[in-house]
Amino acid sequence: MNPRQPPSIPAIVIPMWVRGAAIRPVPVYAVVDARTLETIESELADDSPRARGELDGAFARFEATQPRLADALSDVLAKPLDETALALGYFLSISVWLAFERTFGAPRLREVTSDAIAATEEAIKLEEELRAAHGDEPFDLDDVVSIEQPNVLAFVHEHVDAALDPGTRGAPDDDPREVDVDDVHSVYRAVVLLTLCLSHAVLAVDGAARGRELMA
Fold it and tell me: Three-state SS string across the chain, please?
């Protein structure tokens, strides 16, 4: 070995199919941190009158500042869903909204338009179709969104898994109540839509470098 040459380091190759083909990359400045989500989870566990009042206020702000996105979620949650799926939907939607509101503040969150919602819905659908057409690839929609918003998706998956586990819902061991998996999936898709729409609604603080967008 030539002493003047450093030993070669094998390149780490990330398969192209890990990144989304239809879903746009989320700018690095729009990624939500895990600690914010943990704090919100703790606060929502408080059932005091004060906490319930703050929660009502959060829903009101969401509907006032993101009316079209709130309507899109309401369309899903207004369906005759399994009660566990319905509770999960309300919890996850307000948790994700609060996480974006607290992380970036109202001035940095643009209002999501109907066109943006429709485009995101189409991108999610197309991404799933592309993944299904390449069954030899081990990556799916969850992997794509987890790369873009890892902390949000980890939080969502934790609560979806808990909702589907009879041992975490307080049901009697001898008669566990089954949860409608299709209803939970519908809620999950709505929360993914919410997450991606809000991610692309975040404004850079001062025109900060958008490295991930430029490299995509």
Answer: CCCCCCCCCCCCCCCHHHCCCCCCCCCHHHCCCHHHHHHHHHHHCCCCHHHHHHHHHHHHHHHHHCHHHHHHHHHHHCCCCCHHHHHHHHHHHHHHHHHHHHHHCHHHECCCCHHHHHHHHHHHHHHHHHHHHCCCCCCCHHHHHHHHCHHHHHHHHHHHHHHHCHHHCCCCCCCCCCCCHHHHHHHHHHHHHHHHHHHCCECCCCCCCCHHHHHC
Which residues lie closer than 8 Å to 32 by C-beta, 6 or more apart?
A: 99, 100, 103, 149, 151, 152
What would the two tokens of residue 210 be? 């958008």
Write the CA distances from 26 to 29, 129, 133, 150, 172, integer angstroms: 8, 21, 24, 11, 42
Residue 107 scores a pLDDT above 50: yes
Query: What Rg do the C-alpha atoms of the chain give, in angstroms?
Result: 20
Q: Please answer whether residues 101 and 61 qualify as being in contact, where contact means their C-beta atoms are separated by less than 8 angstroms.
A: yes
Give the other-Cβ count within 10 Å of 68's Cβ: 16
More confident residue, 1 or 161: 161
pLDDT at residue 17, as a whole number: 46
66, 73, 36: which is closest to 192 by C-alpha?
73
What is the distance, to the nearest Å, from the Cα of residue 97 to the centroid of all Cα atoms in its chain?
10
Q: Which of 26, 34, 19, 71 is nearest to 195 (CA)?
A: 26
98 CB neighbour count, 10 Å cutoff = 23
